[in-house]
Amino acid sequence: MLTKKMRIGAIVMLIATTLGMTSCLKNNVDVSNQRPTFWMLLANVSTYPSSINLYENGTKKNKTALTGIINAPIGNYGGQYTYKITNGTTDSVLTQVGAQLDSLRYYSLFIYGSNPIKSAIVSTDLSNYSASAVNFRFYNMSENAGPVDVFLGSVKVASNVSYVGNSFDPSLQLITNLVNATTITVKKAGTDEVVATNNSISVGSMQTGAVYTGYLTGNATSTGNDKPSTNVIYAAY
C-alpha cells in the first residue's frame, strides 16, 4: 500500500465487498463478473477567469459549474474515455482530451493554462516506486515563469524545470532526505527569487512511501487572482 489512507481505504473496500457479496449470495445473484475500475485525479490548476463544466464521454459530471483550483478523484470502468471541458455559462468547448484508461494504473487529468486552457491525461509511472522514499514529480504549468528550481522544505529537489507545454513526464524521482516536509517553494532557476511558495500543502506533510505531484501555475507578472501559486497533490491514492 502507498499510504495509510490507502490501507484504510483497502480495509473499507474489503468490508464493503464482503458484505455486498454476502447479500448477493443470499439473493442468488452472480457476483463472478465484476468489472475493474480506474482511478484518476481531476486537477484543475488553470487560471481561467470563468467557471467550467466537465463532461466524460458526453455525460456532464458536475451538478454546478466548477470554479477555482480543484483536486478530486474520478473513478469508472476501464475503457476509452474523452473528457471535455466547457465554459460554465455558455457551455462552449474550451479543451478536450481522450485516452484508453486501464484499471491497473493511476492517472491525473490536468486542466491548466488561462485563456485558452489546455488539458492532459497523465499516467503515474510506478516502475521505480519505493516504499522507503518520497515518490515525487513536478510540473511547471506557468507559461511565463521561465525555468524554475523546486524546494520541498529546505531540500532542493529539482533544478531548471521548464514549462511543461504538452509534454508531461510520468516518471517519479525518489527523495530520501525529507522529514515530513510541509512546504514547497519555487524559485527562478539559479536565483533566490521566489516565484511562489506554499506553507500548507494540500497533502499535509509528505510521507515516505506516498506518491505526489508538485506543480506551479499562474501568471508570473500578475499579483491578482491569477498570480503564481504552487502546491503538492497525490499522484496515486
UniProtKB/TrEMBL annotation:
Pfam families linked to this entry: DUF4397
Q: Which domain of life is it from?
A: Bacteria
**Which segment of the chain is annotated as a signal peptide?**
1-21
Q: Does the keyword Signal apply?
A: yes
Q: Which PROSITE patterns match?
A: PROKAR_LIPOPROTEIN
Domain called DUF4397: residue spans: 44-150
Which key words are in the record?
Answer: Signal
From the Swiss-Prot or TrEMBL record, give the protein name: Uncharacterized protein DUF4397
